[in-house]
Write a structure and sequence with these properties.
heterodimer; A: mainly beta; OB fold (Dihydrolipoamide Acetyltransferase, E2P); five-stranded mixed beta sheet; B: alpha+beta; 5 domains; 23 helices; Chemotaxis protein CheW (chain A); CheW-lke_dom (chain A); CheW (chain A); cytoplasm (chain A); chemotaxis (chain A)
Chain lengths: 165, 721
Amino acid sequence: MTAVADSISMERAAQDEQQYLTFIMAGEEYGVDILAVQEIRGWEQSTVIPNAPDYIKGVINLRGTIVPIMDLRARFGLDRVEYSPVTVVIILKVDGQHGERVMGIVVDAVSDVYTIAEGTTRRAPELSEDNNSVFIKGLVNVNDKMVILLDVASLLSIPGRLSDN
Amino acid sequence: MSIDLSQFHQVFFEESFEGLDVMESELLALSPESVDAETVNTIFRAAHSIKGGAGTFGFMQVSEFTHQLETLLDEIRAGQRTLEKSHVDLFLQSVDCLRAMLTSLKDHEAPDMSRAEELKKQFIAILKGEVASSPANEADAPAPETAADAGPEGWVVRFIPSTDLLQTGNEPFRMFRELQSLLEDGSQLQIEVDSSRLPEFENLQPEQCYLSWTLTVTGAINKADIETVFEWVVDECDITYRRLGEAASADNASTDNAGANNASDSSSESESSSDAANIATDTNNVTVASVAEAPAPVQAQITSIPVADATQAPAPKPAKSADQSSIRVSIDKVDSLINMVGELVITQSMLGQLGQDFDMSRLARLQEGLSQLEQNTRELQESVMKIRMMPISFAFSRFPRLVRDLGAQLGKKVNLVMQGENTELDKTVMEKIGDPLVHLVRNSLDHGLETTEKRIASGKNETGTITLNAFHQGGNIVIEVRDDGAGLNEEKILQKARDRGLVAQHQELSSEEIHQLIFLPGFSTADVVSDISGRGVGMDVVRRNISELNGTIEVKSNRGTGSTFVIRLPLTLAILDGQLVRVRDQTYIFPLVSIVESIQLQKQTLNNITGSQPVMKLREEYIPIVRLDQIFHLRHRNESVDDAMLVVVEGDNEKIGIVVDDLLGQQQVVIKSLEANYQKVSGVSGATILGDGTVALIIDISGIGKKIEHRGAQPGKEQAA
């Protein structure tokens, strides 16, 4: 973790450190705030929600709670892949306006947990044609690899109904 | 004294509202002809606790107002005054007024005092009638109930020094001056001397003290402060403290400061008063001081008590204690829960032990343990559900009052009979059924029951009867509202419906069909629109509210003998009787209550209107047909509907046929929210978890109905999808 604290005083780094869980999708490594991660599960068949956006795979029963599952590849407009028994669902929770919201995201594989100082993240370059930039909190270099940090709150927000009304 | 009293406000309000309910129901049982001492006592006790609580929490308007009510009650209780009907009416109005005041206070608003002042004047007027005789009486004989009461400010100190007080160097007048110096502006010290112990002049010893004093302190002062004045002489005198009594109140009623002065209390403070009482007293005094004038410095510590004075906005209260609804659960239910959890723990440890060194020889024991676990779980589930259950008397309790008032207003004699008050139902259902029930009862009173003259003319008992009945039937609760009035006037209803174009001129309808007409929006047969009912915004709303609860309402009526409204409701909103259906590879659940019938779909009976909306002729009706797979945009695997089933459902008074692939089974399902983690989905009211652990969606019938209307407006959109 020596590469992390490069341009910033150690003192501040210690204060603003945050742990991120990273996962792999289409060869890239993405990170989400580990405090937002509730659990990691294998993929299971979900119940289709009528007229939902195509990236919402459906809902599953998570110990009695109805939890929607989002295909992150579809959300980011990446190519789809067939789900296999090793396909991973990360269950995320975030405090919303109406209390806690829980949602699962389907990713290719879970990678690692990094401790990242707040100041080391860099803003993602503004790409006007990229609709996904709203989800990106920043970029960070870990062991000479680029990790894309995602903003969980905006990731879990579903824009108004698309195919209905 | 820095206890944050606001944390107890919620409890106070709950208890006060309960107390008001008790007062109301007991008042209704009270009549001038038969004054039951126990009833009066119950009312008195309820009023007394509200007053005490209000005083403790600094809601002075409430405690002052309740005090007047209590004074009159006390006189009735003590037999000094006979109860009149006007008193009961006044008490009932006061209950309403108090309820309104408490509601405002609960919402952190300043209560509207105009009504309270008016009622207070009436109380004082009644009380004045006997004021001349009562003061002495009350001053001498304080009320027997001397519970830790939080009456407002002011003390009466009876100071009887021993005769040798002066010899120990104590000077009563110095003490009185000291007491005077303690008083704030606006407070008063009245001193009365009692010279009855004074001996004949020849026997008088000049060094002895024969006098005794009664000191009346009006205004904000702590008992502890008064005590410090007399601290040095406690051993040499007989001193009693009593809160400012009734007598003082009557005398001071005319002063400008009525707000502060009226709020006095007849009950005496016994020396054994608990710490709690002292806390209460202190709080009161501080609060009252701020009502009377500038806030006392001590108030800074207890800013969370809303001082609901007209000149002072209520203090802001922390948001956390906002409107948390709570339920009272009887200790029996909690005990049985604890027992069951105990059993569950035993089963769990038994299974745990079994699992540590398991071999096949113990299989039978494992199975036994598992079945025990199953039973424990089921029992626990039932008990937990029962916690939410409350007797329907909570919903019924408002009706005696309502019927009494409305009956008086309409000049009808009505007897209300309530049966099955202990029938339990879910709290949420109870809250939502209240308004529809009120509406039905009002309707029965206004339209159902005839006027007294008509009743006599038709040979009926001149007193009409309205019966509220509740009972369990299957998994439902049934509530009946029955009257022995004239019944529904079928000709009149039919005529009205024809006038409004709801029914074709020459269409003949059966009695049941006519009865159903009253549930149509905007339908009223009342000749005159009264302020009770008849505006025509009624039965359709009742019906909608009930169907929102997954319930049904029907009416039975006989000309001349009355009508009965029967409401059927599920016991709880958390569980629904569902019909499982299969559409493509998905399972959906239809609320069983909305299903009219299920039939095999026959293609030749289908017609298309304007090419987009298929309808089917079902007997003499055309009903719109929807295909669930289409409106839900499921992947189409086959287009054929030949072997499909048609489920005819009714929602919002309209029948719809829904095409499904197969009917599966019927079962009770636990309703889970889809919105909690996702969002509202049109056409779906919720989700549930099936026995195999998968999620199935529950169909919202009226939502599907709206979808058709929507689709009718935009044909072509569906094809594109």
